[in-house]
Amino acid sequence: MRSKSAENWQNYWRGAYAAGNKVANGTDLSAVSQFWHNFFVLAGKKLVDPASPLRVLDVASGGGAILKYAVDGLTPEYVSPFCMDISASAVKGVCERAIGTQGIVADAATWPLIPECMDVIVSQFGVEYAGLAAVSDMGLSVRPGGHLAMLLHYHDGAIHRECTANLQGIVGLERCRFIELSLAMFRDAFEVLRGGPREPYEASSKALIPAFRKLEDLMANLGMSVANGLLLQVYKDVDHIHTNLPKFDRDEVLAWLQSLHRELAEFAGRMGSMCDAAADRGAFEQLLKQIRENGFEILEAGALVSDQHDWPLAWKLVAGR
Ligand SMILES: C[S@@+](CC[C@H](N)C(=O)[O-])C[C@H]1O[C@@H](n2cnc3c(N)ncnc32)[C@H](O)[C@@H]1O
């Protein structure tokens, strides 16, 4: 049976491709780009063998951002790219855009590949969703002489803090029942437009006021852009529709709010799984120990920092077998 989290990611990637979003970029941070550039251009080049393409697997590949670094950084004909993700839509999207990529739809928690079948295995904010044991398992599929490189979520780091704030924002929105109360108010308001009674509308619009105030507090405390600006957007949209009601179609408004409700629940699920996946120092050090025991030499390990953030962005890890 698929987990709620797997379903959540599948809905996310299906929706992202359906909306035609730009999904290949991964995390748009210069320290992150620099890490992958250094790995593929500086370290990876040494591994390239013109006689047989380098098998590079991106685990929990999402939009395939890291494979793009591999293909751009190394000569494309020397790379044989593979992507793996729990979401079939994510894998399909990468294989359709990056011709020649071989896709694997799998849960990294039950590691699906045989030992020593890849030259390079990479992951960015991905494999740890399957638990840190999966990081150690995936290392076993690197051939002797090959490399493992990854960026992992950092507990209490910049991304973790942002995800925590996003989650608080969505949970706060859920708790004050802003969407349910807006739905009730709009149902009653459209009835008034059709000549129905005013009293239910007066009661439901009054009941919505504290939820508006709660949203204002949440944005004041967590920042206006919290949850990718979703709180601010829903606040403004409900207000705008309410003020201009005759211009809107009742069924479209109600359907929009209902789908927003689902979207927010899924967003909160992704934020929660990101927070749960973040490793603290103790867990990271335990992972390094396990990777050494699997026959790797640790080439680079520690916090990935950026001068644009007060807290580390990720744990970085490069190991050679
Ligand atoms: C935050 S996204 C990162 C995607 C990509 N690596 C990047 O940096 O842009 C996390 C990815 O992990 C995938 N994922 C989550 N749990 C997984 C699991 N148990 N096994 C494999 N993939 C998983 C999700 O579908 C999603 O594509």
From TrEMBL:
Q: Which domain of life is it from?
A: Bacteria
Give the GO biological process terms: methylation
Question: One GO MF term, please?
Answer: methyltransferase activity
Q: Which UniProt keywords apply?
A: Methyltransferase, Transferase
Protein name, entry field: Class I SAM-dependent methyltransferase
Source organism per UniProt:
Microbulbifer bruguierae
